[in-house]
């Protein structure tokens, strides 16, 4: 095993252990929390190395970078997650290429993904991203507009809504993000009976705040830095 591969395997194992501890603290099973390794801006070789140690879920933010990596790693048995901000004019490159799109935050984007999925004869799994703290610079739909978007998505046969995603504001103290995570769970719990569908997934928690996220019910945690180290600048 090369040095980098050993390092990545070790860090991912430490993260999985911490996720299991946090799940246990909330009376949840470790298997109910899936680690999405966020590999944006890190080389495809890191993904290959980590995949070869058993990691299957990888998250990417930028369309072109993600597609380039998918091409380079064709044949590698992994599931790709699109977690970044997505403009509707790029939706056609994303639909059908990712196991899950975490960042649907407008009916325009949903419509574009739906249209492409239908043309490919696939059903694209998606999450709706909610901007709970109402930060103006952050992506995500407002809490007020969430039910309307969810209902619209249910009418799009090219999409399957499987849950919600959020990204809290940056806090030095991870505990401060806890109310945001709890709120996402409550929103999900309220939507399910209203829409008459099951929304099993809550995508929440990153390197700095995954403990409270898992304790509040995260099923997908998106962790980059803790596994891969600091990201090189985008360029
Ligand atoms: C980059 C990114 C992450 C991972 O962040 P880390 O702090 O490196 O763990 C998670 N989610 C989204 C949406 C991201 O853009």
UniProtKB/TrEMBL annotation:
The PTM N6-(pyridoxal phosphate)lysine maps to 40
Q: Where is the Alanine racemase N-terminal domain?
A: 29-232
- What is one Pfam family matched by this protein? Ala_racemase_N
The residue range of the signal peptide is none
The superkingdom of the source organism is Bacteria
Q: Name one GO molecular function term.
A: pyridoxal phosphate binding
Keyword vocabulary terms for this entry: Pyridoxal phosphate
InterPro entries per the record? Ala_racemase_N (IPR001608), PLP-binding_barrel (IPR029066), PyrdxlP_homeostasis (IPR011078)
Q: Which cofactor does it need?
A: pyridoxal 5'-phosphate
> PANTHER family, per this entry?
PROLINE SYNTHETASE CO-TRANSCRIBED BACTERIAL HOMOLOG PROTEIN, PYRIDOXAL PHOSPHATE HOMEOSTASIS PROTEIN
What's the family? Belongs to the pyridoxal phosphate-binding protein YggS/PROSC family.
> What function does this protein fulfil?
Pyridoxal 5'-phosphate (PLP)-binding protein, which is involved in PLP homeostasis.
**What protein name is recorded for this chain?**
Pyridoxal phosphate homeostasis protein
Q: Which organism is it from?
A: Pseudodesulfovibrio mercurii
